[in-house]
Amino acid sequence: MAYLQDCTYGKNNVRFLKVKRDPINPKIHQVMEASVRVMLTGAFDVSYTKADNSVIIPTDTIKNTILVEAKQTDVFPIERFAAHLVKHFFGKYSWIAGITVHIEQAKWSKYSVDGKLQPHSFVKNGDEVRVCELVSKKNGDFVLTGGVQGLTVLKSSGSMFHGYNVCDYTTLKPVNERILSTDVDCKYKFDSAKIGSVDNIFTLADSGLFDKVFQSALKITLDRFALENSASVQATMYNMGTDIVNANPYVYNVSYALPNKHYILFDFSWKGLKNENEMFYPSPHPNGLIKCTVGREPVAKL
Ligand SMILES: O=c1[nH]c(=O)c2[nH]c(=O)[nH]c2[nH]1
Asked: Is-annotated flag, keyword Oxidoreductase (predicted)?
C-alpha cells in the first residue's frame, strides 16, 4: 500500500529590490536585492491524499506575504528578515509545523567617483550572493545557516598538487605550480544553543553579529586562497573552515563545496615551443567537486 511519506511546499524565487534611505540624509541609500524561498510543512497531508485544498495557504499568498512583509519591515540583515517571516507564518496559520526560509542577497556595492563614495550608485561584480537559511519548527527548534555562494576566484600561482595515489588508471602529472580556480560555496551553521531562540536573532542582528560573521568568512576565504601555497583544494578548504570556526564563537560548523575548475596547459611541443605555465585551456568539464565540513571540537568535560 502506498502512503504519503513526506511533503512540503512553498514559493521559490520571490524576488524584490528594496531601497533603504538613511533617516538623516535620505539621499544616502542601501539596496537589498533578494530572492526568497519559503517552504512549509505541517498538516497539509489531506491536500495531497484527499484533494482537500482547505488547508492550503496558496503559494501566491506566500509570495504576497514575502513582498508585503519586506515592504513593512527591515530586511537588513537577511537573517533578521528570515526570522521575521518565520514568526509571521507561525503566528498566522496554526497548522504550520515547520518553515524553511532561504534568502539570497545580490552583492550591490557602492563605488567612488573622483575619490568620493557615491550615495546611491552601485556596482555588481559577478554572481556572488550572500545566503541564509532558517529552518524552524513550531516547538522552537531552529537551525540558522549563513554563507556566500557564486564567488569565483582564480590564482595563477601558489597552488601545487603532487603526492597523490598513483595507479594504472593515473595519467595526471604532479605539479608544483598550476592554476587554481573555484566558485566558492561556503556555508556556516550557527550554534543554536548559543543563539537561544528565533526571537534572539533580532537582538543579535541589531548587534551586527550576522554581518560580522559574513565579513569574517568572506575575508578568511579570500585571504587563505591568496596567501596559502595550496597543497590541494582539500587542504586549503579545511584551513579556511578552521580559521572561520576559530574566529567566530557563534559558528558551530563550516561547510565548503568547491568545484575544481581545471585550466589545462596547451601542448605547443608540436611547434617546438615551451609552455611555462602561460597558456591554459579553460576546461568546461569535467570538474572536480570537493566538499568538507569543519566543526568545533566539543570542549572536554573534566
Ligand atoms: O586539489 C586537488 N584535489 C584533488 O582531489 C584533485 N584531483 C585532481 O585530479 N586534481 C586535484 N586537485
From this structure: yes
